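Retro notes - structure team

What went well: the batch runner handled both jobs without manual restarts.
What didn't: labels got mixed up in the shared folder, which is why I'm recording both outputs here explicitly, each with its sequence directly above its C-alpha cells.

Job 1
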Amino acid sequence: MHKILIPVDGSIHSMKALRIASDLAAKYQGRLYICHVLLRGKDANDLMALDISSQFDKPLHQILNKAISANLGPAPDKILHKIGQIILDHFAEKASSHGIAFETMDILDGKPADEILKVLEEIEAGTIVMGTRGVTHSESSTFGSVSQEIFNRANCTCISVK
C-alpha cells in the first residue's frame, strides 16, 4: 500500500492538499497519514485567521477574541492543542467523506519541518503532499519556509499544492 503523508495546519493550502492526496490515494490504493504540528508562536489573531476557524466552538471563539482585545502574546499550549485536535478531526472527516483509508497521527510538537520529516521516516511514506504555504504567509517566496525545507530534505516524492 502506498503511504502518503499530509501535514495539515488549517490553511486553505492544506485543505487543497488533502483533495490532491485523496485523489492519489484512490488511484494508487494508498493510505493517508494526516499529521499536525502545534502552531507554536501563533497569537489569537493568527489562529482566528485560519481557514478552519469556522470550526471553532463558541467558547474558543470567545477566548480568542478576548486574547485579541487584550493584545496577548502567543497562545497557550491548552489552546494550541485544542485547535490542533480540531484541525486533525476536520481533516479526518474530509478524508473519511472521500472514502479514503487514513490514519491521524498524534499531535506533534517541535520545529515543524523536523517533526514532519521524522513522521515521514517512521511511516516510510512514499509521498508527501502539502500546501506551498501554511499559516505564515510570505510574499517573498513561492514556497513557505516549512515546505521548502521539507522538499529539500525529504527522500521521497514531494508534491506542493497552492
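Job 2
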Amino acid sequence: MNTNKKNVLIVDDHPLVAKATKNLLEKNEFIQVIDMAYNGKQCLEMMALHQPEIVFLDYRLPDMTGVEIAEQIRKKFPCTLIIIFSGIDITDLTNKLIELKVCGIISKESSETTIMNMVNCILDGHTMLPFSMYHQMRMMSINHNPIESKLNDDEIKIMTLIVKGATHEQVADEIHLSKRSVDNYLKKIYGKLNVKTKVQAIEKFVQMKTQNN
C-alpha cells in the first residue's frame, strides 16, 4: 500500500451513490477509500475502527444529521478532515459547519471536476466553498445574537417554523428529518431555553428575537 495515500471513509445512505463516490475519489492517486457507511451509527463505529484521515459525509442520513455526526467526530477525532457532501441546500448551516471545523462543503450536483478540485484543495491544506455559502460567512468571531448564543442553526430554524404555526410533521417535512428527530430537537431546545412547554418556548424565542432587533 502507498503510505502517502489518505484513508477515506464515505458515508451515504444510498449504496449506489456511495459506490460512485468511491470510484470517483479513487481516481486521485493520493486517496484510498477504506470503507463505506450507510448511516450515522455505522459511521461512528467505522471511525473508531479505521480512524480515517478524511470523512466524506452525506449531510442527510436516516438516523442523524451531518451536524450531529460532525460534532461527535470532532470531539473524538479532532484531526480528521470532514467534507460535507449534500443533496439539499444547507447554506443556512454554513457558520455552524465552520464552527465545527468542517474542511469542505459541496453539493452532490457538482461536476466530477469540481469535486476533484475540492479534494485536491483539501489535500493541499485549503478549502473550497460555493459562492452562496461564502457570502453567508460571518467574519466576526464574537456572536452577540442572544438567540444564536443559545441555539444552533437547526434549532433556530425549527423554532422559527413552530412560531409560524407549523406542526411537528410539517417541520419534519420542511427540514428533511423524521418527526421523532424533531421531537428530540424540541426537548433539547426546551432545556437550552429553560422552559417546559411549547408555549413557553415560543414566548422565550420571540422575546429573544425582539431583543436582537
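One thing worth noting from job 2: Confidence is low (pLDDT under 50) at residues 139-143.
We'll revisit the folder naming next retro.
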